[in-house]
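request received
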Amino acid sequence: MRVPLMCLALVCGCASVEGERDPRDPWEGFNRGVYRFNETFDEYVAQPVARTYVAVLHQEIRIRVGNFFSNIQDLLIGANNLLQGKFEDGVNDFARFAFNSTIGLLGIHDVASDFPGLEKHNEDFGQTLGRWGASPGPYLILPFLGSSTVRDAAGTAVDWMVQPVGEVRPIALRNTLYGLYFVDTRAQLLDASRILEEAALDKYVFQRDAYLQRRRSLIYDGRPPREKLE
Amino acid sequence: MTRIMKAALIVLAAAAALPGAAQDVAPDALVRNVTLEVVDLISKDKDIKAGSRARLVSVIETRVLPHFNFTAMTALAMGQNWAKATPEQRKQLIEQFRTLLVRTYASALAAYSEQKFDFRPLRAKSTDTDVTVNVRVLQAGAQPVTLDYSMEKTANGWKVYDVMVGGVSLVANYRTEFANTVRASGVDGLIRDLEKKNKSLEKK
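response:
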């Protein structure tokens, strides 16, 4: 891991940035370097694998795979809701996990969403830090993972350390689950990335601004204070 | 329910569907009507199902576009640079931005597959002239996607001037891109870039 990262740093050192710097993105030169690396990886590896996955597996099965990981995430989502003081939401997330893990057969059926009040939430430790008052800090593109900020990268690291799939043994099974998780996640984003491709004049800027807006909205659970555009 | 009330409701429903009566339709009802109408159209249209992008674009142009205020959207996306643009430049910007948004919208609709909508009750006073209509697109195993339509009351009925998808404002998202391009190559440079973008999408 260390060697590719150093190569990355070299690539980024040469990246030049036109015009004024965006105050939210002081490391734009570095980020654009990582961005190009990610784009190349995506074009030659992640996207072809995701397309094959979609072509080979029936949608019905892919939904089950997505549900399985989504169910595990409900544990983290619940914990983050509790950390943010949203007890009712947190309890609902754990109830979702309980229902879906049992009646929903290890989460492959999302039965909980049919119950009123048990709908899926979107939380992670980056949002919890935001709730606690941490500002996002500079925008940061992570190798392989994409858009983030200093705050959200710290959040992702914490979420990753406590997520339960890491405990799965044998190692081969754990790694298979990790692989499946990444392929499934990329596959779910195929439509979104095509739309982004079409909508943006400068994909880097468009994606960055969308990410920052999205995170702000998520921290306020979809109801951020309205910013009137002039 | 009495027969007269029933008849009155049917007349009301019919009136709501007429474009001429658009002025009288509440913003949330307008969003609901147009959404359901368009979704119904595309799920029945053979050409669209076969992947015809042209047919999809024409449905959007006739059914959806009349309810958007593209002048306001373009002005908001341009921000301070709007004042720098001549009337002729403004006309071209609106035209190109409109084309780009229609194509983007068509791509989003093409990805639609029978999701259910949850039209949220409008949280606004009857005297408000600027409201947000909230819609949620429900999907199994995932958090609903929110669609928030910012709408303004005009003489010709309520018009959409921004759409937020999952908390991301479309208009705000173009602001930095537009500002960067204008700084680097002027308003004409931006018009050229938009034209180039639209041309490249046409070929697809």
